[in-house]
Amino acid sequence: MVSDFLLLLLAGLLGGVVNTLAGGGSFITFPALLAVGVPPVSANATNTFASLAGYLSGAYGFREELKTYRTELCIWIPVSVIAGVIGALLLLHTKESSFNAVIPWLLLFATVLFIFGGRINEKLQRISLASTTPWLILLCVVCVYGGYFNAGLGIILLSILMLAGYRNIHSMNGIKLLLSSSVSASAVIIFILQDAIAWQQGIAVLTGTLLGGYFSAVVAKRIGQEKVRYAVIAMSCAITSYFFLETYFS
What we know:
Blueprint: H1 2-21, H2 26-35, H3 40-61, H4 63-66, H5 70-92, H6 96-124, H7 132-148, H8 153-163, H9 169-193, H10 199-222, H11 225-248
Helix pairs in contact: 1-2, 1-10, 2-3, 3-9, 3-10, 5-7, 5-9, 6-8, 6-11, 7-8, 7-9, 8-9
């Protein structure tokens, strides 16, 4: 339907702006996919597909910063790819009813990360892991989560990079986006093979996301990043509350 396409295009547009300025675009795009009737598991897979282009373009923007970490990335990327596949397979083997029940908790987790992620990262600046093994285990766990449910992935990746001792925010953002790309790309391949993506709806969201990312600079000048962040917090709390009420009290 035209109305569904326009709703998803608008959701993608807003999500693209929000992702670029403050993060948290999935709080708009994922519920929008559910609202037009896409089943929960497929909506999650479709949302991951729609997010992938933003991750790839963002990672390309940090290509110069990433050159310094070629050796490490030769290890991290395969780990993130394998973990993304595992997360995607876990999602596809989750019953719709079970995933419906876990959606509010996943949204709550992502909301808490969005609100307190900055403070968590500030505290983690004082801590670093003594060896690479615990960090790689953490990376694997986080990337499995990313393959299963994409929302909040970037915030968690920044946190574990802090734990690993990284401090240059530009390099960290580049690594975060490249690993997010690896996780999402591997998950999307699994979703395509299993026919889990709602293509028409996903393309509508993807188109909006790309347009939103392009126009985000204009929005930033007129609104400001902090105001966008507060708006996302209010919206994410409202959406999470709605899903809790709908799932457990309706």
